[in-house]
C-alpha cells in the first residue's frame, strides 16, 4: 500500500505537474496504481490521473503502458477506436518515491460496476450487443492495426463513456472543480475528507438537476443513476489498463490474463497470440449476459486450480482435442498420453447453449443466438477462433 515504493497518498486539492492538475477525488485503483479525477487548470477540463506505485518495476510498467497508449493515440486521431486516450504523462515526487503519472481522458464506471449494479442478473442482450461492438472495435484496432495483445481483458478494464462530459461544461453538470486544499483537512487516506463529502453533496444535486433536464449522465457514477435506471446511459465503452499489454512480437510473460479470463493455451503453455484476447472477450460477454463468470475454477481435493479450470472448460465446450491437450510445455502436468486429465476423471458435460437456457432461463432463441456467437470464439484451437474483425460481421451483432 501506501509506503516506500508503493502508492502515492493523494488528497483532494493536491497539485501535480507544476500545479497544472488538481486532484478531485479517487476514482479507482488496481494492483499498480491509484486513479484520481483531476482538474486540468490549463485546458479547463476534467481528466483522469493514474498515479503509479513508485518501485522500479511499477515505473517500468507505467513507461511501457505510455509507449503502447501513445501508439494507440497516434493511430486514432479522432479518438473513435474505443481505446482510452492518453493525453499527457509526467513524474511526481512524493514521500514514497517518484511516481510515473498518466493523464488520460475521464471515463465512467467499469463494466464490473455495471454488472454489480444490476445485481448480477445480466444487463440485457441489447446492452450486451452494444458493449460487444465497442470492445470489438477496440480489439480489431489493437490486433489488426497496431499489433498489440491486451492480455488482461475483463470487466474492470472496460469503462463506460460518460455521455455528459462535466469537463465541457462543469457548471451545468453540477461539478465545480476543487481548486484549493480544504482548510483543516486531516485526510489520511482512509477517512472521508470534508471536500469529498462536499463533492458527494454536489453530485447528488447534479443528479436532480440533470434528471429534470432528461439528459443522461453517462457513467459518471452509477449511484447517480440509481433513481432513473440505466436507460439513459450510452453503452459506448473503452478498453483501459495497458499495464500488461504487449506487442505481439515482443512477448515476455508466459502466464498472462486474470484467472477466470485465461485462455487454455496459456494454461497448458503452448504459446499465445491475439486470439487469447478473443477468449477473454467471450468470457466477458457471457458475464455481461448472465451476471456470472463463465469459469470460476477452484483448488479442489488433489487437483490444482489449473486442472479444475481445464475440466470446467471441457464440461462446457467438449473434450479438448488430444493434439492440443498434449501440445504445451505444461501438458504433462495435467494430461496423460491419451489427452485425458490425469486427476479429474468424470466430467459432467453441460454445453453452453443449455447452460444459458437451463441455468440462466434464457428463452430458447436467445440462448441459441448467444451460443452461436460465443461458441466459435471459445474454440480450443486458437487459430480457429474468429478475429475481432470477423466477429464484428456476425449476424448476432447486426
Ligand atoms: P491498474 O493498472 O492499477 O489496474 P487501471 O488502469 O486498471 O489501473 O485503473 C484502475 C481503476 O481506476 C479502473 O478499474 C477504474 O475503476 C479506474 N479508472 C482508470 N482509468 C479511469 C478513467 N480514465 N476514468 C475513470 N476511471 C478510471
Ligand atoms: Mg486494472
Quickly list its features.
binds adenosine-5'-diphosphate, 398 residues, 13 helices, alpha+beta, binds magnesium ion, 6-stranded antiparallel sheet
Can you offer a commentary on this structure?
The chain is an alpha+beta fold. It is 35% helix and 14% strand. The chain has a 6-stranded antiparallel β-sheet with strand order 1-2-3-4-6-5, with helices on one face. It has a two-stranded antiparallel sheet with strand order 7-10. Helix 3 packs antiparallel against helix 7 and helix 11 runs antiparallel to helix 12. The longest helix is centred in the middle third of the chain and has 22 residues. It is globular and about 65 Å long. The termini are far apart. The chain binds adenosine-5'-diphosphate and magnesium ion. Adenosine-5'-diphosphate (ADP) binds next to strand 2, strand 3 and strand 4.
How would you summarize what this structure contains?
Helices cover 35% and strands 14% of the residues.
Distance between the termini: 46 Å
Bound molecules: adenosine-5'-diphosphate, magnesium ion
Helicity level: 25-40%
DSSP, total strands = 10
Helices, by number, come to 13
Percent strand equals 5-15%
- Report the uncertain regions: 185-197, 205-228
Backbone shape: globular
Rg to the nearest angstrom?
A: 22 Å
SSE run: EEEEHEEHHEEHHEEHHHHHHHH
Average pLDDT, rounded to a whole number, is: 87
Q: Helices and strands: which structural class?
A: alpha+beta
Please give the largest β-sheet: 6 strands, antiparallel
The strand line-up of the biggest sheet is 1-2-3-4-6-5
Amino acid at each position: 500500500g501506501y509506503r516506500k515504493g508503493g502508492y502515492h497518498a493523494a488528497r483532494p486539492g493536491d497539485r501535480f505537474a507544476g500545479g497544472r492538475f488538481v486532484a478531485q477525488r479517487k476514482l479507482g485503483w488496481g494492483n499498480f496504481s491509484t486513479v484520481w479525477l483531476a482538474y486540468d487548470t490549463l485546458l479547463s477540463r476534467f481528466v483522469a490521473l493514474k498515479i503509479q506505485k513508485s518501485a522500479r518495476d511499477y515505473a517500468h510498467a507505467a513507461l511501457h503502458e505510455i509507449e503502447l497508449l501513445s501508439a494507440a493515440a497516434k493511430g486514432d486521431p479522432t479518438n473513435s477506436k474505443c481505446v482510452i486516450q492518453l493525453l499527457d504523462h509526467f513524474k511526481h515526487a512524493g514521500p514514497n518515491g517518484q511516481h510515473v503519472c498518466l493523464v488520460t481522458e475521464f471515463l465512467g464506471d467499469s463494466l464490473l460496476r455495471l454488472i454489480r449494479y444490476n445485481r448480477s442478473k445480466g444487463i440485457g442482450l441489447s446492452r450486451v450487443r452494444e458493449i460487444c461492438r465497442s470492445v470489438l472495435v477496440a480489439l480489431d484496432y489493437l490486433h489488426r492495426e497496431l499489433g498489440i495483445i491486451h492480455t488482461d481483458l475483463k470487466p474492470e478494464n472496460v469503462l463506460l463513456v460518460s455521455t455528459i462530459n462535466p469537463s465541457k461544461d462543469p457548471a451545468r453538470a453540477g461539478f465545480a472543480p476543487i481548486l484549493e486544499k480544504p482548510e483543516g483537512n486531516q485526510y489520511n487516506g482512509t477517512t472521508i475528507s470534508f471536500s469529498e463529502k462536499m463533492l458527494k453533496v454536489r453530485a447528488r444535486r447534479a443528479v436532480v438537476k440533470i434528471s429534470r433536464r432528461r439528459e443522461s449522465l453517462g457513467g459518471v457514477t452509477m449511484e447517480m443513476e440509481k433513481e432513473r435506471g440505466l436507460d439513459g446511459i450510452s453503452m459506448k465503452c473503452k478498453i483501459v489498463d495497458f499495464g500488461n499489454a504487449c506487442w505481439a512480437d515482443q512477448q515476455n510473460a508466459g502466464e498472462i490474463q486474470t484467472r477466470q479470463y485465461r485462455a487454455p493455451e496459456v494454461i497448458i503453455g503452448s504459446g499465445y497470440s491475439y486470439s487469447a484476447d478473443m477468449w477473454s472477450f467471450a468470457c466477458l460477454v457471457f458475464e455481461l449476459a448472465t451476471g456470472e463468470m463463465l469459469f470460476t475454477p477452484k483448488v479442489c481435493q488433489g487437483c490444482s486450480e489449473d486442472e479444475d479450470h481445464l475440466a470446467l472448460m471441457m464440461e462446457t465446450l467438449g473434450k479438448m482435442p488430444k493434439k492440443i491437450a498434449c501440445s504445451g510445455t505444461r501438458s504433462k502436468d495435467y494430461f496423460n498420453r491419451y489427452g485425458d486429465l490425469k486427476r479429474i476423471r468424470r466430467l459432467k458435460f453441460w454445453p453452453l447453449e443449455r447452460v444459458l437456457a437451463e441455468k440462466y432461463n434464457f428463452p430458447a432463441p436467445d440462448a441459441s443466438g448467444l451460443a452461436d456467437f460465443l461458441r466459435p470464439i471459445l474454440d480450443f484451437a486458437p487459430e480457429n477462433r474468429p478475429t475481432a474483425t470477423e466477429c464484428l460481421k456476425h449476424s448476432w451483432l447486426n
